[in-house]
Design goal:
By secondary structure, the protein is of the alpha/beta class. Helix content is 40%, strand content 14%.
Length: 295
């Protein structure tokens, strides 16, 4: 199938591996290197403290996101590195800007800021992280975006917001990626999330479903209202890659990606079934990535 170029990204949501925590570092490095060398454009991790219900019970293994991305930066050389996505309330905004800048500098300019309003109350309460109501979480998300952008501009003037006050938002060293590491806002909310995408983001991340085309129409309308060029925003979709144990479903996955491309999506990022076995990553690298690239 000939499609427009679709970039492929690996997201790692599950750290419960066949070999257990004692081998997790080595196994994770193998997964990341295989994806990086195989042509995956993105390597992403979840930003959660407990495992989420869609994957497994809360007690299952979960690594802290930015420590993990720093480790993966040393294991790889080309893929962009990001969370899918950071809960804005989990870290003070000035610290988050420093964290992503650090990742960008140490990875040679490969960091993205993936961010959303946060939703997992259980892990926040569990670890003592304040979890305000949804309206306030979106206010904090917008202030976080403004603070990060100000710090990446090199503007050290005080920031006085409703929720955050920064006397001197100094960022040194500055990010290698200029004007700043790309910002991806995750979520499909039509009134708030997609409006923030139009106002601040370089990319969106939507979940697959029958309303995908309508979500893009809503984003286009927000862009018109904000005076933003809709085509400037990279459209990414969360995508479960299941090519089968030996690649028997690779053509089916390629067709699904082709349909996303026809809708206007430029990237698909998601988990790979059987990722710890490595073979599915190799199948995607050898069969899927070449098939969805421009021919």
């Amino acid at each position: 199938m000939k499609t427009s170029n679709v970039k492929i990204g690996l997201q790692i949501p599950d750290y419960t591996t066949p070999s257990g925590p004692g081998r997790l570092g080595a196994d994770l490095a193998t997964v990341a290197r295989t994806a990086d060398e195989g042509g995956f454009d993105f390597i992403a991790v979840m930003d959660h403290f407990f495992q989420i219900g869609a994957v497994g019970p809360a007690e299952r293994e979960m690594l802290e996101a930015y420590t993990t991305l720093g480790y993966l930066a040393a294991c790889t050389s080309r893929a962009k590195l990001l969370t899918l996505v950071t809960g804005a309330i989990y870290r003070y905004p000035g610290i988050l800007a420093k964290i992503v800048t650090t990742l960008d500098v140490l990875s040679g300019g490969r960091a993205w800021l993936g961010i959303g309003a946060a939703w997992n109350e259980e892990e926040s309460r569990g670890l003592g992280v304040p979890f305000p109501p949804v309206a306030e979480r979106f206010e904090r998300l917008e202030e976080t975006l403004r603070i990060c952008l100000q710090m990446w501009r090199g503007d050290e003037s005080p920031y006085h917001g409703t929720h955050y006050q920064l006397e001197r938002p100094l960022n040194s060293p500055q990010s290698l990626t200029r004007p700043h590491p790309p910002i991806m806002i995750g979520g499909s909310g039509e009134k708030k999330t997609l409006r923030l995408v139009a106002r601040y983001a370089d990319a969106c991340n939507l979940f697959p479903g029958p309303d995908l085309a309508r979500k893009l129409d809503v984003l286009r309308a927000h862009c018109e209202a904000e005076g933003r060029d809709y085509d400037e925003i990279t459209k990414t979709c969360y995508f479960p890659f299941d090519v089968g144990e030996k690649g028997e479903k690779a053509a089916e996955v390629t067709d699904q990606l082709g349909r996303l491309a026809e809708m206007g999506f430029q990237a698909a990022i998601g988990y790979v079934a059987g990722v710890w076995q490595i073979t599915p990553l190799e199948v995607i690298a050898q069969q899927v990535i070449p098939a969805v690239a421009d021919l």
